[in-house]
Write a structure and sequence with these properties.
The radius of gyration is 23 Å and the shape is globular. The protein contains 14 helices and 15 strands. Helix 11 runs parallel beside helix 13. It is an alpha+beta fold and 448 residues long. The mean pLDDT is 95.
Amino acid sequence: ILQPLYQQCIKPDVRFYDEYFVMDVLIEDGICRGVVAAEINSGEIHIFHSKAVLLATGGCGPIFQITSNAHSLAGDGMGLVYLRGGPLEEMEFFQFHPTGIYRMGILLSEAARGEGGVLINDKGERFMERYAPTIKDLASRDVCSRAIYQEIQAGRGVGGKDYVYLDIRPETINKYKSGPGGQTVTAEALEAKLPDIIEMMRVYMGVEPMKEPVPIQPTAHYAMGGIPTDIDADVIIDDQKTRVTGLYAAGEVACVSVHGANRLGTNSLVDLVVFGRRGGKHIAEFCRTASLAPLPKNPEAPVVAELERLRHGTGQEKVGHIRDEMQKIMMSNVGVFRTAERMQAAVDKIRELKERYQHVSIDDKGRRFNTDLYEAWELGSLLDLAEVTAVSALARQESRGGHSREDFPKRDDVNWLKHTLAYKTAAGIELKYKPVVITKFQPKERVY
């Protein structure tokens, strides 16, 4: 996808600003007027005055300890709109993929199970038969992730640890007749069909998957929530579909809500293609007739002030320590399984960490390629998003899709068939709700 996209941008002479770090979206009186960015190479602050802005900054997986997301996906776009008073929608719904490489979170696709791979516990049991007796290892991501955690909680994690095995050995697949069509599977056929997956197993875990099983655990993978948008990628700020003029979002940073509470595999790519295209076409039409709204006075001032605070902080707190504590509490308390007690503890901890964040210091005081500084800035965004996620999840007293509560195990359409909107206010996070519009298909219970 990326290479053809880059080629198509080169043809019309699209100008790229590489190594620029966007740190503010200039929204005033309901109109987006551009962005403020730091040039990483020099540390200089630049103002991009524009008729329209489209955010395509990805998700926020690094709020969790184990994630398939890149280190750079710090939820920047979500955090920028949230700080400017816009809501974040459905942040409690986060998808955990069941087969992340142990301790690294690097994703091993469903293709491995599609070709007959099975999940195995410490006793060598194919345990998905207990949780999804009909579809077994091909159950949805959230069902498999919860099953893995239940096995671990029951003491059946491998060696008593917090992982199980993904077994794609040909003899295992043939034993359970779980290959496509029940056909006999060979190592050569698997190597041909799963070359990238098998290579990752070998490189990152140092195992030979044709001869031994691979340690895996659920990994934070995809945010169903994000910046509310309509089908043309316009950012909207309430239940009345009020638009922010000139501001658009597409991809994982956005919440069109086509994924509901639980995205289906590969639909994220369809999301990118469909709403990226619709957003691009809509922006082009808008810019043909729109005027350039004036910039606010001293638009760079908030960014400069925050960067100077971080650069010259003299406190004893370290960015890495705060980030580690945030990720651990979110993974353990707001992860695959949730309860009110654990989530409240997470909210309290995140708020403590946000207070400590005001006293961080960094080692690099320079301006050129100061990654210490930008990671410190990103941590502020991650803390905000962790708090919104935990608060939204604590309020939703049911289980639905990627939000699974042990204390409210059933879905409750009477009280909770509604979208969450979380706003930043002076008094803290304010939650509002808007109805879910049901058209052709009525919600039904999933049965495996």
